[in-house]
Specification:
It is a single chain. The chain has 402 residues and is α/β, with parallel strands linked by helices. The chain has 13 helices and 10 strands. A hairpin with a 5-residue loop joins strand 5 and strand 6. Helix 2 packs across helix 3. The protein starts with a strand and ends with a helix.
Length: 402
């Protein structure tokens, strides 16, 4: 394995014309407004405005797409959350997204109808009949008490968002990703694994333009549910999934179900009822479904034998990633991180504190503080990917050959 590993965050794709995590939220809102689904569009605006107000209280700028989609997923599953029994009342604005009760018949009338439909005198099919009546009663009770009334709206909203990513994260052509060519060439020539937290196809587009074969390891996942990297191909670890992947549940010949992944090199070939297999969320986004756990373990294995980690455009907001990075730094005091990011904490000149720290990024703050103590274990390059990638690669490869 290589002495160098590369980790890319959302900032690495901005120079390809793709939006930031905050910018993507705004694009999604506008895109949803253009769809013929006013209920889900209104629900999206409702979630956004409430998160924006909360972000202002947290001294955060904007609503990033991770928090936006994670909130929608929670609302879609709110009646199945462990804390649901302890929440007496949710935001009253959710009432506007309740599904309409079927028909105009009164609740009492429908209850009588369900009970009367059961004929206990008929032995044949009694069990199935009672099952159907029971299901009808449960649905009626859920409707009256509000259980699952919001799920349909927010589940549909999540689906619309994931399908919208094909359009909003499309890379026009290989020229837009030209700044990534030095990375692709270096990774190919030096067998450097590239791990990315991005589900866009900027790296894949760049590799295709250069004629470089790449492998994510999931191309044959449906066959044996194991990572299989093509020999000699560029190793690309998509930690949070890809727009090329679609994940479904499938049963084996023994009737046991598990998550399987299909790869669609062209997004337009993905079935209309499918959605891309990508992970959203704040903090811990490690999932045991599909290949995500195995991909993350492969990243950990690659990092374990490396001495240099080049990080480009990562916000340091994923706890499971930060934990692995912290352990790796503590394990060997010769290990070094090179960070390329135009949004690094800026030095202060007022004498109060040394830099402007973001309380939502504690691990990044620790790395910057380690750099400020004079160590060469952390190198900061406050530049964008297009400007800083070549210099950072040279630095990483020099340390590799030293």
């Amino acid at each position: 394995m290589s002495d160098v590993v590369v980790l890319l965050g959302a900032g690495a794709s901005i120079d390809a014309g793709l939006p930031s995590s905050v910018g993507l939220t705004s694009l999604l809102l506008n895109h949803l407004d253009g769809l013929d689904d006013t209920r889900t569009s209104a629900a999206a605006r409702f979630v956004y405005h409430n998160l924006a107000a909360d972000s202002a209280r947290r001294y955060s700028i904007g609503v990033d797409v991770e928090r936006f989609v994670a909130s929608i997923q929670v609302l879609a599953a709110r009646d199945r959350l462990p804390v649901s029994p302890f929440i007496d009342s949710w935001h009253r604005g959710l009432a506007g997204f309740e599904t309409n009760p079927s028909g105009s018949q009164s609740t009492a009338g429908r209850l009588v109808e369900q009970i009367a439909s059961f004929d206990g005198r008929q032995e044949y099919g009694r069990f199935r009949q009672s099952e159907q009546v029971g299901a009808g009663l449960i649905n009626l009770i859920n409707e009256v008490t509000g259980v699952h009334r919001y799920a349909q709206t927010f589940t549909s909203l999540e689906y619309n968002i994931l399908r919208s990513l094909f359009t909003l994260l499309a890379v026009s052509d290989g020229s837009a990703t030209a700044y990534l060519q030095p990375l692709i060439r270096s990774a190919r020539d030096a067998s450097i694994p590239i791990a990315t937290l991005n589900y866009d196809l900027a790296l894949e587009t760049c590799a295709a333009a250069l004629g470089v074969e790449y492998s994510t390891g999931v191309e044959r996942w449906r066959e044996d549910e194991l990572l299989n990297f093509q020999p000699g191909a560029l190793q690309l670890l998509k930690l949070h999934g890809s727009l090329e992947w679609s994940m479904t549940r499938a049963a084996s010949s023994d009737g046991l179900t598990s998550s399987v992944v299909d790869v669609f090199p062209r997004a337009e070939n993905m079935p209309s009822n499918a959605k891309p297999a990508v992970i959203f969320g704040e903090g811990n986004k490690l999932s045991a479904e599909g290949p995500f756990l195995e991909v993350f373990m492969e990243f950990s294995r690659c990092l374990a034998v490396a001495s240099t980690l080049l990080i480009v455009g990562y916000s340091f907001r994923d706890n499971h990633v930060n934990e692995v990075l912290s352990r790796w730094m503590n394990r060997d005091h010769e290990n070094r991180i090179i960070i390329v990011d135009p949004d690094l904490p800026k030095p202060r000149t007022d004498g109060i504190i040394s830099r402007s720290w973001n309380p939502l990024q504690p691990f990044r703050n620790e790395l910057v503080q380690l750099h400020d103590r004079g160590t060469d274990r952390v190198v900061l390059m406050p530049r964008g990917a297009a400007e800083g990638l070549v210099g950072a690669l040279d630095m990483a490869l020099i340390s590799r050959s030293a």
